Amino acid sequence: MTELAEYFEATIQRGDRVEPRDWMPDAYRKTLVRQIAQHAHSEIIGMQPEGAWISCAPSLRRKAILLAKVQDEAGHGLYLYSAAETLGTSRRELTDKLLAGKQKYSSIFNYPTPSYADVGTIGWLVDGAAICNQVPLCRTSFGPYGRAMIRICKEESFHQRQGYELLMTMMRGTDEQRAMVQESVNRFWWPALMMFGPPDDASPNTAQSMAWGIKRDTNDDLRQKFVDMSVPQAEALGVTLPDPDLKWNAERGSYDFGQPDWDEFWAVVKGDGPCNAERLEHRRKAHDDGAWVRGAAVAFARLEEEL
Ligand code: ACO
Q1: What is the pLDDT of residue 214?
Q2: Beta carbons within 10 angstroms of residue 270's beta carbon
Q3: C-alpha angle with apex 141: 137 to 147, nearest 5 degrees?
Q4: Which DSSP string corresponds to 53-71?
Q5: Using an 8 Å Cβ cutoff, are 105 and 98 in contact?
Q6: Does residue 46 have its Cβ closer than 6 Å to ligand 1?
Q7: Could you tell me if the CB of 42 is within 6 A of ligand 1?
Q8: E strands within the chain?
Q9: What is the pLDDT of residue 307?
Q10: Is 233 buried (19+), middle (13-18) or exposed (0-12) by CB count in 10 A?
Q11: Fewer CB within 10 A of the end CB, N or C, for the chain?
């Protein structure tokens, strides 16, 4: 082992941060770029399912909340692209890969949002799952990623609460509103569990990412934490989680629960989910529509250089 590699290993073992100018193995860099890019793309594509509701939210207050939330997601994407840039990959390169279908984004954003209750359910369950997954990432071994996660998690926590508050308001409303919430939860529960990735024994990246301190918990451990956290919240809300196998296991001090449909998960990851084509098409169009802004920014930067 070279001196540089020894230093890297020692940094990881001490639980210290690796910084952009430090030596790192190529595979560590590649894994980080893969994970951070997917994460950034998820934030950007993740604006779509809820963004569609901005103009139809039922009051000015709800519109303003949703607008602010969707803007936050854009900001999260930008922090994450910036973190990836410190590893030597440009935002443009990553965007091109997303648009060409060569990089992934979270499966959850390939599900439709036909009901306004979905805005609340996304806040409660999807942002709730994101927090569960991302709070440990504040301690990830790569400095810029961990620091980006701190701010992102603070904002995600607001997002989760606004979703829960929206659902709570609907649950205090009419029978029709309560039915809307239950129907939405029925659709989002299983896809939310899939956000944590495949079971540990089918996850090719977990072991190495844990050894490098990129991931701090396994997919299954985080999924369990999310279920344990969500059950009392569902009870307080008055909704039923759509899992007949969900029950308290006193011995383990955790809930037992059923498995999501992993065939569905892999189909969505591979591009065959209900909205994959639509999400990418929308993103491509937004990118093309923004070409003049990028062109103007480049022209302005050149002009400044000349002055
Ligand atoms: N959606 C899409 N692809 C997924 C998902 C998912 N929910 N879960 C796993 N995958 C992909 C992995 O990216 C990997 O594919 P790849 O090797 O081509 O990159 C493959 O399935 C196998 O999975 P793992 O070996 O378990 O992959 P990994 O160790 O990267 O773990 C995880 C996946 C847990 C999502 C991890 O990357 C992570 O924690 N990422 C940061 C959080 C994040 O991206 N969140 C985005 C959604 S939250 C939000 O934006 C609000």
Answers
A1: 98
A2: 11
A3: 60
A4: TGGGSSSHHHHHHHHHHHH
A5: yes
A6: yes
A7: yes
A8: 247-249, 254-256
A9: 80
A10: middle
A11: C
Distance from residue 255's CA to the centre of ligand 1 (Å): 24
Q: How far is the CA of 33 from the centre of ligand 1 (A)?
A: 12
Positions of the chain with pLDDT under 70: none
Residue minimizing CA distance to atom 5 of ligand 1: 197
- The residue whose two tokens read 């060409």 is 100
CATH architecture of 1-306: Up-down Bundle (1.20)
Distance CA 27, CA 24 (A): 8
Tell me what pLDDT residue 1 has: 74
Q: Measured from the CB, is residue 110 less than 6 Å from ligand 1? A: no
Q: Which helix (H) or strand (E) holds 256?
A: strand 254-256
What pLDDT score does 118 carry?
98
Looking at residue 12, what is its pLDDT?
97
- pTM, whole model, 2 decimals? 0.96
ipTM value, please give it: 0.98
Q: How high is the pLDDT of residue 56?
A: 94
Token pair 């929206």 is found at 166
Q: Which two tokens stand for residue 277?
A: 């084509």
Residues 39 and 218: beta-carbon distance below 8 Å: no
248 forms beta bridges with 255
Please report, as a single letter, which amino acid is at residue 115. Answer: S
CA of 90 to the centre of ligand 1 (A): 21
Contact 108, 175 (CB under 8 A): no
User: Which candidate, 282, 266, 269, places its Cα nearest to that of 99?
Assistant: 282
Is the Cβ atom of 161 under 6 angstroms away from ligand 1?
no
